[in-house]
């Protein structure tokens, strides 16, 4: 009885093993059959040859040991002899896709170059300055260096203008005596006037350089505060000087308007300077130097925008005269002097706007001719300050 039960259990165990074996190997057999249908024909006849799997335009999958011409540009999978994928090849790119990829790569390189450049500049900025105050001190030092050059140029202009006055006086004496003016004398007068024009243009260029310094350091200061995560406001005393960059500069578009505004500029100097006019010409007016801190001494110049085009317009520029050539603008500017500079533009353009409405188009054209007035305010009448004049020294 026990022997029959043992035999029956043994038969059932073998039957289960056969079932498990069949279930385990049936899927692999099916896969092998599928591969045999697609690969068997050439895998047996060409061992070691590269095999490919690719899809045609109709969505049908193909297996082959070589690619037909119509499949060379399509995506494909390279298979081993056993049918295992070893490498995937993307489809060939169109010319448009290739060009787009090249452009994207160029943009990525440029972007990375900008990022690297910015990081380098940030590192230099942080190494160069310990605080925002250090940065502003460096800026002020650059501004003062430019101011010293401007004061030296003003001294040159004063000497050149005195020379012109002497030469013109000599020419007038010859005319009164009925004698001809020698060409050399005429040439000296002409060349000295040209030299004055060059010096005036140089002053205007230095003023623009100062504006560039202010703008650059404003960006550096903002970046420094961001890098240092400084949240408290930084007290910057330069805003007043930046505002003066436009209020003491006036643009005129043509000779007629420039002549009118030039006459008003001379009147403004006469009304607001405490010092008498020392030298006056067609393009520069200079008062005598200040004698003390309360004196207001001015220089106003008329600078052609384009020397080769007489009717291209001019810039009228008002500035302070300091007591010495080495004195900087920051030490020369007192509240009363700043008030005079700030009133210059409004005084001239407010009056001109009321008297010459037909020239507004010309004013626009002139404004487009120079970047110095890119943020020029609208023309509107505004009262100008008029400090009490000092009496002229005896003999002047």
UniProtKB/TrEMBL annotation:
<dbReference type="InterPro" id="IPR025392">
    <property type="entry name" value="DUF4124"/>
</dbReference>
<feature type="compositionally biased region" description="Pro residues">
    <location>
        <begin position="380"/>
        <end position="390"/>
    </location>
</feature>
<feature type="coiled-coil region">
    <location>
        <begin position="101"/>
        <end position="177"/>
    </location>
</feature>
<feature type="region of interest" description="Disordered">
    <location>
        <begin position="354"/>
        <end position="396"/>
    </location>
</feature>
<keyword id="KW-0175">Coiled coil</keyword>
<feature type="compositionally biased region" description="Low complexity">
    <location>
        <begin position="364"/>
        <end position="379"/>
    </location>
</feature>
<feature type="domain" description="DUF4124">
    <location>
        <begin position="42"/>
        <end position="80"/>
    </location>
</feature>
<dbReference type="Pfam" id="PF13511">
    <property type="entry name" value="DUF4124"/>
</dbReference>
<protein>
    <recommendedName>
        <fullName>DUF4124 domain-containing protein</fullName>
    </recommendedName>
</protein>
């Amino acid at each position: 009885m026990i022997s029959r039960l043992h035999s029956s259990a043994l038969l059932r165990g073998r039957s289960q093993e056969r079932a498990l074996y069949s279930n385990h190997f049936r899927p692999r057999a099916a896969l092998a059959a599928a591969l045999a249908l697609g690969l068997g024909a050439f895998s047996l006849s060409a061992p070691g040859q590269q095999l490919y799997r690719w899809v045609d335009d109709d969505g049908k999958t193909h297996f082959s040991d070589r690619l037909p011409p119509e499949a060379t540009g399509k995506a494909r999978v390279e298979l081993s002899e056993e049918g295992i994928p070893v490498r995937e090849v993307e489809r060939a790119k169109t010319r448009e896709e290739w060009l787009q990829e090249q452009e994207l790569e160029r943009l990525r390189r440029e972007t990375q170059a900008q990022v690297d450049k910015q990081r380098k500049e940030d590192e230099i900025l942080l190494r160069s300055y310990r605080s925002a105050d250090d940065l502003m001190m460096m800026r002020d030092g650059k501004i003062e260096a430019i101011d010293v050059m401007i004061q030296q140029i003003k001294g040159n202009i004063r000497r050149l203008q005195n020379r012109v006055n002497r030469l013109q006086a000599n020419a007038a004496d010859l005319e009164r005596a009925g004698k001809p003016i020698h060409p050399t004398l005429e040439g000296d007068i002409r060349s000295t006037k040209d030299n004055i024009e060059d010096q005036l243009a140089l002053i205007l260029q230095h003023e623009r350089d100062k504006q560039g310094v202010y703008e650059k350091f404003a960006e550096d200061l903002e970046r420094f505060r961001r890098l240092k995560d400084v949240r408290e406001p930084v007290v910057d005393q330069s805003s007043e000087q930046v505002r003066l960059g436009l209020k003491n500069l006036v643009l005129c578009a043509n000779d007629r308007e420039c002549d009118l505004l030039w006459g008003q500029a001379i009147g403004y100097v006469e009304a607001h300077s405490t010092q008498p006019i020392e030298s006056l010409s067609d393009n520069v007016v200079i008062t005598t130097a200040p004698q003390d801190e309360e004196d207001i001494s001015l220089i106003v110049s008329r600078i052609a925008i384009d020397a080769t085009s007489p009717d291209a317009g001019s810039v009228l520029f008002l500035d302070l005269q300091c007591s010495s050539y080495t004195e900087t603008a920051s030490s020369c500017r007192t509240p009363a002097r700043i008030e005079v500079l700030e009133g210059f533009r409004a005084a001239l353009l407010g009056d001109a706007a009321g008297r010459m409405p037909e020239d507004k188009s010309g004013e626009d054209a002139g404004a487009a001719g120079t970047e110095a007035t890119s943020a020029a305010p609208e023309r509107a009448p505004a009262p100008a300050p008029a400090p009490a004049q000092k009496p002229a020294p005896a003999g002047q």
